[in-house]
Write a structure and sequence with these properties.
169 residues; alpha+beta; 5 helices; DUF6756
Length: 169
């Protein structure tokens, strides 16, 4: 996955320092905090696929055609976030997620160059999480983000949903 991210950074015209893997000494703490804060799985979710199946708390889900573009409308470009990417290649020695950190504008640019990947974007203070799953459904959980996504869905700038959000993140 790291190689795919490096390639996506290059394709997007970004530097390797614009989106960096979280240091090993910090990785476990960040992942565990995400799992404990936003899922019913807790730390047992480290090896799970599809964290969206266990989101807890209020959430809003909607189908999207271009998740990174929606995210760019919901978040400030220079906000720092965590990015969790599923290890679809099975190369991680521990856990099923790669954790990166960077600004929203770098995250959205990279995601536009990664295809068929489930991702989770998390506020650095762990206040909210945005996910896009392999069904093309974006889900917001946590504080304020469900309301922001709901407002986007209701706005005239949001395209009409393509399908009902039956399979939420």
């Amino acid at each position: 996955m790291r190689a795919h991210v490096r390639e996506a950074l290059q394709d997007a015209g970004l530097s390797h320092s614009d989106l960096v893997p979280v240091r090993l000494t910090r990785y476990q703490a960040v992942l565990e905090r995400v799992l404990e804060t936003f899922t019913t799985f807790g730390v047992r979710g480290e090896n799970r696929l599809w964290l969206w199946e266990g989101f807890k708390g209020s959430r809003v889900s909607t189908p999207v055609e271009d998740g990174p573009s929606v995210m760019a409308q919901l978040l400030a470009p220079h906000d720092l976030v965590w990015l969790l990417l599923e290890d679809w290649e099975g190369t991680k020695k521990r856990g099923n997620y790669w954790v990166f950190e960077g600004e929203v504008q770098s995250v959205t640019a990279v995601l536009k160059h990664l295809f068929h990947v489930e991702y989770y974007v998390v506020d650095r203070e762990f206040a909210w999480l945005l996910c896009e799953n392999h069904h093309g459904v974006m889900t917001a959980v946590g504080r304020t983000m469900p309301e922001r996504l709901q407002a986007w869905v209701a706005s005239p700038y949001s395209p009409a949903p393509l399908k009902p959000p039956a399979q939420g993140c």
